[in-house]
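Ligand-bound model needed. magnesium ion.
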Amino acid sequence: MMSEPVASHPSFLNLNGIVKRFGDFTAVDGIDLTVKQGEIFALLGSSGCGKSTLLRLLGGFDQATEGQIHLDGECLNGLPAEQRPINMMFQSYALFPHMTVAQNLAYGLKRAGMKGREIAIKVDDMLERVQMAHLSGRKPSQLSGGQQQRVALARALIKGPKLLLLDEPMGALDKKLRAHMQLEITRIIEDLGVTCVMVTHDQEEAMTMADRVAIMDAGRIRQVGTPQEIYEQPNSRFVAEFIGSVNVLRGVVERDRIDAVHLHCAELSGNIYIGHGLTCHIGQQLSVAIRPEKAALSRHRPAQSENLSEGEIVDIAYMGAQSVYHVKLSSGFVFIVNLLNSQRTMALPYQWGEKVWVYWAPDATVVTEAQ
Ligand SMILES: Nc1ncnc2c1ncn2[C@@H]1O[C@H](COP(=O)(O)OP(=O)(O)OP(=O)(O)O)[C@@H](O)[C@H]1O
Ligand SMILES: [Mg+2]
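Prediction:
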């Protein structure tokens, strides 16, 4: 039998117990991960958390201290980079400066022994895909940053790798070009259907490009999920605070019913009502998170007895599409509320120093941690 049992490799890319130590320092500390075929998967985390190290292990530029990597049923352990069906696009692009765009793309195919005619067809096809056909005769130094990036991507994809690795793919681009290239690169990768693992420390980039995201911290994975799951249901305070801004409150369980939980919260000088059941007990401390755009403001006391507090506006940041209000509650806690400016139909917008009520719906409260 040539084929292996499917059950042993339920996903396209499997990482099992991956550890990487440099001397007595552990850069990657026991990572289990599965990536599906055709998926764009982002590793997101702050500087030094081990993202690039993990990517280098996948690419074969370094070997894991412990653990196994399987790709499409094949164990990659011990295989050097050039024997893996994987290509990596480096942040620096690493284009050959003395070659034209077309020659940069043809290089790898030539080395693989492909014939001239076949190479020309593949190069033309790839140049079309990345919209660089009109610049095929230029040298890299005659291209803009975004154009160089397209060439680097085309070169990484031309041999049809099973897995594409991107390390901070937008690192060298300015903000506006970044946003454009994020969509462009996603389109090209999805068109080709290639599986991709990318590394970024930019949460917006991960959320825009990836089907699923892993949040990394100190060599470990804290949560894996779709961008929406990570944002709406963070499993910890760490993840909630890492992705976007968030109000984190602490409460003590006062009433625990099957369908609802009431917490007393000192920061609110009141109660938090959670509209679903939890595994918790009376007297237990919980952390909850409320996203700033899920809360609202009112000049009058809202018609709800929980999930509200009175305070004073101490800061307003106008951000164009939205404004961010900092409301200092009587406990001293500063609660952040985002309001869309397009919805601001009030004749009198909220002012600095104004007394307002902050409130939110029960389903906007996410429990992030039990203590
Ligand atoms: N060859 C090496 N020898 C010793 N330590 C290393 C080596 N490579 C990486 N490290 C350490 O491992 C940790 C993780 O590094 P890594 O490059 O993976 O971080 P990163 O998450 O990619 O960060 P950044 O966002 O800054 O690129 C860092 O503390 C780094 O100093
Ligand atoms: Mg890095």
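Residues 1-9 have pLDDT under 50 and may be disordered.
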